[in-house]
Every structure is written in structure tokens, then in C-alpha cells.
Automatic annotation (TrEMBL), chains A, B:
Chief location category: nucleus
Coverage span on the entire protein: 1 to 200 of 301
Extent of Polar residues compositional bias: 75-89
Superkingdom assignment: Eukaryota
Annotated GO CC locations: nucleolus; nucleosome
Protein name: MYB transcription factor
Amino acid sequence: MGAPKQKWTPEEELALRAGVKKHGSGKWRTILSDTEFGSVLKSRSNVDLKDKWRNLLVTASFGSRRNLKAAQKKTLPSSSSKQNGDNDANTTAMTVVAEANGDDAGQQIVPTSPPSGSCDPPTALQGSYTRVDNMIIEAVTNLDKPFGTDGKSILRYTEENLQPYMKRVVTSRLKHLTKAGTLVKIKHRYRISPDYKSAG
Amino acid sequence: MGAPKQKWTPEEELALRAGVKKHGSGKWRTILSDTEFGSVLKSRSNVDLKDKWRNLLVTASFGSRRNLKAAQKKTLPSSSSKQNGDNDANTTAMTVVAEANGDDAGQQIVPTSPPSGSCDPPTALQGSYTRVDNMIIEAVTNLDKPFGTDGKSILRYTEENLQPYMKRVVTSRLKHLTKAGTLVKIKHRYRISPDYKSAG
DNA sequence: CGGTAGGGATAGGGTTCT
DNA sequence: TAGAACCCTATCCCTACC
């Protein structure tokens, strides 16, 4: 029963890193289709790429996925109130942008699904790091250089990785605003509703 | 990275089952519009409902969509599968649909009474816009064209305008993580702290 | 053009092998 | 016990079709 576990070669790993850098994390099929990397990774599936990338990330940051899960469990609070003065991790895609935009703006952001204290099940907590924090850690890990990573590279990395989220968030909010009547959609195009009253 | 996957809660699943029982399978938009279920399912789209129902069907009759497809293609079991608990495929695709519309799918379906708990406020918040919402509104306003603005232009606009925010946020979090000891800054470059793995 | 059905891709938990 | 490679499937995304 020799399930020949095919270990990743340095060339493959390099191609994967380059592929992620070019197309972004989560674009596994795209990376495979790219002739620049596809030849090197021809014996790997998109799921293989995803798994390997996860291993690379998690190993660098936590040592292992097991440690990561243990670290996440620690954050389980007994009280239902949030005391985090900084950003707190949430589970909706909206939060990504909310955090990204509202860091020091000091404003309250009301997502479409506000966290009601008693009814929502304990969805997996992220830990004590914000999404941006995790992106930064990911960036420093992936762009690993002998002497560390400079701030500009980190910024560029986070910007690139935010794009897929932005697409989803904007699409979602466009639907929401259209449904709520703020926008009017006609023939694939959006316009401000006549009813919309500018807040400022 | 984060949690792009919004897991279905038991309340939502119950509402979906009830909705299908009342309006029939395939009437996703109708179910969403029904005030009886719309509140519970307010964060779901009609496509989400379709997908979830497909999943429910398939898990009830087969082990997975994969097994279902295999069974549909040829009435032979695929091969030696470790996880497949259902030894004999007892139903065909036809039977699945019959179950879905007529009888219960082997589960208890809430009749026509609203879900017990009041997990959500009766009225949605109006006039609360996220920062992305405001960006969208700004985009539609600024890119105003005779016939409105298409989604792709809106997305590009928001992406471009997000960058200045990202710069502020990343800078802020870099300081924070350095101060907290997660990162170590040496000569304008950041590295993961050796304490990071065990820190908690 | 909106809604639906279906194929396919991804994320994350779980499992096996070393 | 840990780490790397691999499996399973709920959820999400894209496209054709009406």
C-alpha cells in the first residue's frame, strides 16, 4: 500500500511562491494554468497547491497547524462582552474592509449582520490578531529574506492580497445597497436612487 | 485566511426546510421574500439557498455530491472508498427529488410557525452605511455616466481608494505588532519574533 | 435581465504516512 | 508526538440557459 507521498521539491515550492506573488493567494487554478509555473507544477493539483501553501504559512507562523488551533482556542472568553480596545477579529468578509478602513477612525461600523450577543453560535475565533495582523505576519513570512522585510514590501503584499476580498465585499454591498433602495440597478449599471439623502 | 465560509446555522437550515415545504424546491427568491423566513435568511442569497438545499439533498441520500455524480453516471460504485458508509446506493436521483418536494427529507420540518427565538431585530437598520458603502456611493456619484456605472468600474474605484487607507492601517499595525513583540524591527526591516510561536 | 440549475473552485477540518 | 502530504465536503463562484 505504498501511497507514495510526493514530497515537494524546492523548485516546486519556488514556483508556488512565485505563482502566489503573481496571481495572489487563492488563485490556485490560475497559477496552474499559467505556463510560467504550470510546467513545474504539472504533477500537482489546485488542491495540492492550496495545501502546500497552508503548510508553508502555518509552519512559518506557528510551527504547525496543531499549534495554531491550540493558540486559537485560548481566546475563548467566558464573558460575552468584548473588551478589546483594538480591532477584534470577526468572521464576515465585511470585517476585512471595516478593519482596514476604520482602524483609527474611531467610528462604529454596522455590518449587515451585527453580532447579537446571545443567539449566534460560537464560530471559530481568529485569535488575538486582526486580519491585517495576520496578513502582515503572512507577508513577513512569505517574503522572507535573510534580513527581514521592509515596510513597503509588506504594504504591497497586503494590498495585493486584499483584492480578492474587495471584489467579494463590493459585490455583496452592491447587492445590499440595491436591495435597500440606495442604488438603482438598470441594465447592469448602478445609479444613485432619487431617494438617497446625502448624510453630509 | 479569514473565514470566507459562512457556515449555516441550525436556525437557517430549519428556515430553509420550512421554506421549501411551503413554496417548493426551486422557489428560492420566493422563500427569501417570505417574511416568515426572510429574516432568518437575510444574510443568504437565492443562490445560497439553492446550494444549501442541494447539499442537504445529497447528504441525505448519498455521502456527497461526488458519490451522487458517480451513481448517476453509472450504477456502479466508484471503487474502494474508505469513507463511504452507505454500502448500497438505495436511491436514484429521481427518488431524491421526489423526497424533496413531497415528503419530508427524513428530518423534522418546522410547520408554519416562526422560529422560536427572536435572534434578530424585527426591522433592519436603515441609514447605516459602512465605509465601503460610502465608497460605492462615492464611486457611482463621481463616475457618473449618462446610464450609470457598471460594477467593474465601481470595484476598480474602491480598490484604488482603499490603498491610502491600507497604508495607514498597515503602518499602524506594524507599530503595534512590534511593540507587542510579535515582530522585531531591525534597521527598518521586520522579522517574526522568536517568541511568536509560544506567545499567547 | 432576473432567477435558476449545474459544474467547478476554494477553504478549512480531518486523516494518513513518515 | 510532530510535520508534511493528502482526503473530504460545505460553501462559494461562474456560466449557460430560459
